[in-house]
């Protein structure tokens, strides 16, 4: 089946729903039915957390938002504990008048999600009405094309029907609101794939908390709404958790190696946060990293200060993942490694000096000579994605994409068509495993073409806890494992 771009746009046009919302105003007053305590001259409502209570549960019990609980009690962001005291200023909560509430006029109210609706809503800015779509529009369209291929790959005519619809948000918040509040398909969807805007994720998450469907955040890495909303899923492992897994992989894979920090004093050092964390972990184990600083370009003499006569082993960790910085040090590091390998060949003992390189997700986007150098260095990197565009599985999806749409998928990091393929596969497998009910943690994990998903509780909601460790081999291949 070959489809041109106009054909696929027409398909999405037919399933995209356009709706109009009415903004109404409601007024009311409320106060918290809680004991009042005076602290430093100011009166507060006080709530004592019971065993097993969550921020979400307390918000429902008190009739206030989860965001308000955390706003006035920042410690609640890390979860609630038995006997924790929550404080709410009486002046702020005693009475609120003329509260603006967005509602919609619909012939039939949006239904609460059925227990087994087996439906998926994809809400992205496809830009279907634009004469010249933006790059974001094109990438979103590629995501949906890959999503359809993933769904087709798992098609089973004898199984439960799983319905998928796409909604063009056009990058506008009012469109997101229209769909979220008025469209019955969105209201009853098992899973909603959200656009990348934090406001859109927040709105969809609030509606999901009322209805019981799930919002999958694939595109906004920094959003942390899952901490407060039990129906939001963050598909990107948070930075600190990523650092912890990466450091664990580094220290275990290179056990017995001395870490060497390479820092260009006159260049970019945007990975200093990771390097600082690694340094702290090594020091806690009694190992002091060696720091080599150079100005501009790394020289052979900079590395020659490292002793190798005792068959020492080093793992080199630069403080930047940028291509320009990589080029300033990679050639010298490669030559130094070659010299150490030559020493190992001449040595008749089993011991020999070694030098390995540990780097960053940015390196997976390297192409041409830089990619060849990664293989020559046999570098190891950590990454949220497996960017192996020429891998067997990725090539299979690429061929299907070309066969379906008559054009190649857009190559990016991550490749959006592959992300769509994996997202569809993950969601549909869960729906099938649970008789049409989506469960974030069943099946427990999914290892896909480019992405791996293993969701765990984080705060109220769920967060992906997987990370790729990728090894570039001298044979030109990539070997990856999920941790």
Task: Give an account of the 3D structure.
The structure is a single chain. The protein has 483 residues and is of the alpha/beta class. Helices cover 36% and strands 18% of the residues. It contains 16 helices and 19 strands. It has helices at residues 5-15, 55-62, 66-72, 90-93, 135-153, 173-182, 184-188, 198-211, 239-253, 272-284, 300-303, 323-327, 330-346, 369-377, 392-405, 416-433; strands spanning 36-39, 42-48, 85-89, 119-124, 163-168, 191-193, 214-217, 232-234, 258-264, 290-294, 313-318, 354-359, 380-383, 446-447, 452-453, 455-458, 461-464, 468-472, 478-482. A seven-stranded mixed sheet has the order 5-4-6-7-8-17-16, sandwiched between helices. A seven-stranded mixed sheet has the order 10-9-11-12-13-18-19, with helices on both faces. A three-stranded antiparallel sheet has the order 1-2-3. Strand 6 (191-193), helix 8 and strand 7 form a beta-alpha-beta unit. Helix 6 runs parallel beside helix 8 (198-211) and helix 9 packs across helix 10 (272-284).
What is the gist of this entry?
The protein has 483 residues and is an alpha/beta fold. The chain is 36% helix and 18% strand.
Number of helices: 16
In terms of per-residue confidence, which ranges show pLDDT below 50 for 5 or more consecutive residues?
1-6, 11-30, 95-112
Percent strand equals: 15-25%
Count of strand segments: 19
Tell me, what's the shape? globular
Mean pLDDT: 85
Helix percentage = 25-40%
Alpha carbon gap, first and last residue: 37 Å
Oligomeric state as shown: single chain
Strands ordered across the widest β-sheet: 5-4-6-7-8-17-16
The major pleated sheet works out as:
7 strands, mixed
The secondary-structure class comes to alpha/beta
